[in-house]
Amino acid sequence: MLRRRNFLKASLAAGGGLLLTATLRGPAGAATLGTAGPDAVALNAYVRIAPSGQVTITAKNPEIGQGVKMMLPMLIAEELDVAWADVQIEQADLDARYPGQVAGGSTATPLNWLPMRQVGAAGRQMLIAAAAAQWGVPAHDCATEPGKVVHPASGRSLTYGALASQAAAIPVPDLAKLPLKDPKSFRIIGQPTRNIDVPRIVTGQPMFGIDVSVPGMLYAVFQKCDVHGGKLVSSNVAAIRGLPGVRAAFEVKGGADLRGLLDGVAVVADSWWEANRARQQLDIIWDEGDITGQSSESFAATAARLAKGKPESSIRRDGDVAAGFAKAAHVIEAAYHYPFLSHINLEPQNCTAHYADGRMEIWAPTQNPAPGSKLVAATLGIPESAIKVHMTRVGGGFGRRLSNDYMVEAAWIAKVVGAPVKLVWTREDDMRHDFYRPAGYHFFKGGVDANGRLIALSDHFVTFSQDGAIAASADMGPTEFPARMIDHLDYGVSMIPLRAPTGPLRAPRSNGLGFAFQSFLDELAHTAGRDPVQFALDILGPPRLLPDPPGPRVGPGFHTGRMRGVIELVAEKSGWGKTKLPKGTGMGLAYYFSHLGYFAEVVQATVDAEGAIVVDKVWVAGDIGSQIINPLNAEHQAQGAALDGIGTALGQGLHVRDGKIVQGNFDTVLPLRMRQSPPVEVHFRVTEFPPTGLGEPALPPALPALANAIFAATGKRIRSLPLKDQDLSATA
Amino acid sequence: MQYVIEVNGTARRVDVDGETPLLWVLRDKLDLKGTKFGCGAAQCGACTVHMDGQPIRACQTPIASVGTARITTIEAIGQTPVGQHVQAAWIELDVPQCGYCQAGQIMSATALLTHTPAPTDHDINDAMSGNLCRCATYTRIRAAIKRAADLGRT
Ligand code: FES
Ligand code: FES
């Protein structure tokens, strides 16, 4: 359980006045936000220590709401051995001194767990060496307590603040040989730790990309072709120049890369509203290119046609699936579908750029600044050394901002205009110019033997291609569950050419594959008359590690025991099979391994006679290894990811017509709202494995767990999303 | 066109087209960037401010329609006791993830608690369902509203 100290009453009573300026003490003492003073000494690229003992730690990665701005400094502070209350955190810009400044793939924890601790440990070693030299004693006779080096034999001590200058002159020790703390002695890691940015967020201080303000700044909008990559033929741009507030309006000739600068018309004005109003007068003739077959109906028809033939290529083949089906007591077939999705970050894409004296300065809410800088350099023909990218707080990432199309647009427009420019997209721009989660079609066949065990499974996966190759995030790997656990298995794939660009959305691939596979496995369990929990444990078999085959995404493999552990945990916590539920209410189970995390979830849902769905509750059980670094944030990330899955399943799906995305706003793409949002109970199973990330892996099981709950409640199998398009009424 | 509107207790003069939504006056003319743009279509609530104490969508409110109404934004909501309790509860429970929606959430929550000091779950659903949170921090928003209600009682 989380411990939360009740600091509020005390600070309210003591101060009156402006509570929020008071120092708020979190359970581990609170760090602050800030920049090191001029007297602070740099021990390395991450740590500066002031004579007062205040330690400034640089948070190197983009903060998109995943809590990395707290997590990475916590790792450093722990091994440096300082009090969290003496830490202030500073956000890095894009800077060659810092590796991997990316927010994606739930990788921050596995990639930084050791290196960031080593950064802290190296600093501590240097401070010890400085104290030992001053005292003339061997370093190994010295130790540290938070913020100071001590010499127990003589009782002497020196603060880090007093030692920082001498320590900075000591060579950095060999990181690989540094002793790291025994986790049992952690004081910061593992403590529920509040996000230091919250006092600024709740008082409305500017911190997001869209809040950036530069003296003399103008505002821009950019109109592109709604058929992705369409070419500009002609426009009435000259007529736009005379409209109120407009400072510039011009055509932009882009390239062929859908992730780069595309053809369009830029309108720049004194205010964003004037720019966007003027844009509504634009009349543009586009060459949309070939849009034959680029509609949702056509995709579905093509998928059904392809499913009748053999897959174009094989993903995996084990045993003899035809023989397996012949032996099976029950064989069922089913077709599943999930739609295209937009990321719908609540902060629309935006970027501020200023080009002056041959230098480009950029403020961007990006998950991935380094490729953005390269894209700007290549597109504008300026050296990367002349580009400075500031990383702002990001109003939601979800994978959308791994691409930097808005960055290159802002930079281009600013260079043409010769003044600082803030480009802001509308919601419609955002929804219609995304890198979509690809839709997918799965044509399954499964066979269960007389004992109710899954013995054969085939999937003809119909997905999308772009320019002849499989579209981004539209692939499926040979380890897709339950591969490696079933004797007779056949996965094959066929592709439909797609114009719209695709890309990673939170838990890419897994967010769709999880729905299809986990729903069909539930269907098989029910067909065989088996309890889905027992059916799952049978598939997993005894606890063992199944290594990954060589390939582009080879990882540490799949551990059946870890998955069993979270399934058993979620069954216990949810009262699976023990709770008598009223008619119209059911529980569904799903489990999925992604981004190195093992998650099992149970959803309880109720469907009324009119077909309205109420999600009553979600239970989440996760195994992300030996250490939950910040339990306060971990609980929240798991809740958010599970609810993201619930909201996606209920209300989101894009429709394609004539190569364009039909929807443009939240009236037709429905994110989860408060009245739909169930309680989410989160449990972690701590295991001996290295800690892994948490932004994504709690998402995939939520969708099929909800679909399976609806089956349990109504007897209706959900084979297509979103649920808002399904008729679940009793008469349907 | 010149307009004088009362924002956070101060008369502010702006020279803009009368159709300009209050959202863009606040953000781009008065440098009050706490109020956010999310949809421009009354769908997300990120732009919620108070007009005479009532939550409204600033993206749908032309400046010409404001008249003598008192506008309060997130930057000044902490000047009321209820606003203070809401902000304190948000910090205590660590509500935000990305944080982008939270100004609008706080404005709606403060309006709710001002009229309904002890809201039920049903009251919370009704008052808060116009505010989207893409990060789905609803569990903690609900808990923080209840916590703020507690703070108001002591
Ligand atoms: S921006 Fe006003 S409701 Fe979304
Ligand atoms: S905290 Fe990210 S949108 Fe609400």
Task: Write structural notes for this entry.
The complex is a heterodimer of chains A (732) and B (154). Chain A has 732 residues and is an alpha+beta fold. Chain A is 27% helix and 24% strand. Chain A has three domains: 8-191, Aldehyde Oxidoreductase, domain 4; 210-289 and 349-424, Aldehyde Oxidoreductase, domain 4; 310-341 and 436-725, Aldehyde oxidase/xanthine dehydrogenase, molybdopterin binding domain (Aldehyde Oxidoreductase, domain 4, 2-Layer Sandwich), CATH 3.30.365. Chain B folds into two domains: 2-75, Roll (Ubiquitin-like (UB roll)), CATH 3.10.20; 78-153, Orthogonal Bundle (DNA polymerase, domain 1), CATH 1.10.150. Helices cover 38% and strands 15% of the residues of chain B. Chain B has helices at residues 22-29, 81-92, 102-115, 121-128, 138-153; strands at residues 2-7, 10-15, 48-51, 54-57, 70-72. A five-stranded mixed beta sheet of chain B has the order 2-1-5-3-4, with helices on both faces. The chains are: A alpha+beta (732), B alpha+beta (154). At the A-B interface, helix 1, helix 5, helix 7 and helix 16 of A face helix 1, helix 2, helix 3, helix 4 and helix 5 of B. One FE2/S2 (inorganic) cluster is lined by residues 37-40, 42-47, 57, 59 of chain B.
Architecture blueprint of SSEs:
The complex is a heterodimer of chains A (732) and B (154).
Chain A lengths: L7 H8 L16 E2 L7 E2 L4 E3 L5 E5 L8 H13 L6 E5 L16 H28 L7 E3 L2 E4 L4 E4 H9 L29 H4 L16 E7 L6 E5 L1 H4 L5 E7 L11 E6 L2 H8 L4 E4 L8 H13 L4 E6 L2 H7 L2 E9 L11 E7 L2 E6 L4 H12 L6 E5 L13 H13 L3 E4 L2 H6 L7 E9 L5 E13 L2 E2 L17 E10 L12 H18 L4 H9 L4 E2 L11 E2 H15 L10 E10 L2 E11 L5 E11 L7 H21 L4 E2 L2 E2 L18 E5 L17 H13 L18
Parallel strand pairs in A: 1-5, 4-5, 9-19, 17-18, 21-23, 28-31
Antiparallel strand pairs in A: 2-3, 3-4, 6-7, 7-8, 9-12, 10-13, 11-12, 14-23, 15-20, 16-17, 16-19, 20-21, 21-22, 24-25, 26-27, 27-28, 29-30
Chain B lengths: L1 E6 L2 E6 L6 H8 L18 E4 L2 E4 L12 E3 L8 H12 L9 H14 L5 H8 L9 H16 L1
The structure holds FE2/S2 (inorganic) cluster (2 copies).
